[in-house]
Write a structure and sequence with these properties.
256 residues; binds adenosine-5'-diphosphate; 6-stranded mixed sheet; Rossmann fold; 38% helix; globular; binds magnesium ion; 29% strand; alpha/beta
Length: 256
């Protein structure tokens, strides 16, 4: 199937179960939002999908267009079409964005094939124009001294250049000001389309005012406990999470 399929996934951190049987399918062309209170395992899910070594997958599967990515190294996952965006990206002093993106694009080519510099810059500038990013931006070192908004702009540009099939974006917690949120939203909306599936993780409904998701899922205690459309996000904003927990507790009790 043309999808990112997460099936009954269980993830431990230091032998403690954090994600406890999470199932979710993101098809190409769809934008899914995962919301949920702090500490429910949203970032753990994103990091485990990326292949972070501290996160132990004890059972379940993650398939990308039918391929098991859990057996792949993080760079292979990226080549297979997965892109992960994190809230706190690292700084790479001395490496310009242009060179960083060029190296990333080069890494995607088959062994022995050289990137064509003219074509690369042409593509870079056309993506930057589409995203309304100033050309001077690419001369700066990756994330060094960047504002929150500039980090997001850098991340969106990476995503535009790498043209992933699926993007998992962990924009949770505080720290993103409204300008940064708008940059993420404009970027995702510009890149949205039939060739991209997006899994957007967020703690706040506010981001979903700008990126209107096709599906909204509530995560609680390591599981998805409720799914719906964009109206669910508004309901959560108005009523909080407690009613979802109560509803879930009632249905699991009834099932026993
Ligand atoms: P969320 O993103 O939903 O706020 P997290 O995935 O960050 O939640 O965290 C889920 C749980 O896992 C929390 O109880 C947190 O304390 C724990 N946790 C997350 N990362 C680590 C880590 N590196 N070491 C130990 N515990 C962690
Ligand atoms: Mg988090």
């Amino acid at each position: 199937m043309n999808a990112l399929e997460i099936n009954d996934l269980h993830i431990n951190i230091a032998e403690k179960p954090i994600v406890k049987g999470l199932t979710l399918t993101v098809r190409k062309g769809e934008v899914h939002a995962i919301m949920g209170p702090n500490g429910t395992g949203k970032s753990t899910l994103a990091k485990a999908i990326a292949g972070h070594p501290d996160y132990e997958i004890t059972s379940g599967s993650v398939l990308l267009d039918g391929r098991n990515i859990l057996e792949m190294e993080p760079d292979e996952r990226a080549r297979a079409g997965l892109f992960l965006a994190f809230q706190y990206p690292c700084e790479i002093p001395g490496v310009s964005i242009a060179n960083f993106l060029r190296a990333a694009s080069q890494a995607r080519l088959p062994e022995g094939e050289e990137i064509d510099a003219t074509a690369y810059y042409k593509r870079l500038y056309s993506k930057m124009d589409a995203l309304k990013i100033d050309r001077k931006f690419t001369a700066r070192s990756v994330n060094e001294g960047f504002s929150g908004g500039e980090k997001k702009r850098c991340e969106i540009l990476q995503m535009a250049m790498l043209e992933p099939s699926y993007a998992v974006m962990d924009e949770t917690d505080s720290g993103l000001d409204i300008d940064a949120l708008k940059i993420v939203a404009e970027g995702v909306n510009a890149l949205r389309g039939p060739k991209l599936g997006v899994l957007l993780i967020t703690h706040y409904q506010r981001l979903l005012d700008y990126i209107v998701p096709d599906f909204v899922h509530v995560m609680w205690d390591g599981r998805i406990v409720k799914s719906g459309d964009k109206s669910l996000a508004l309901e959560l904003e108005a009523k909080g999470y407690d009613w979802v927990k109560a509803e879930f507790a009632a249905t699991t009790a009834a099932a026993k």
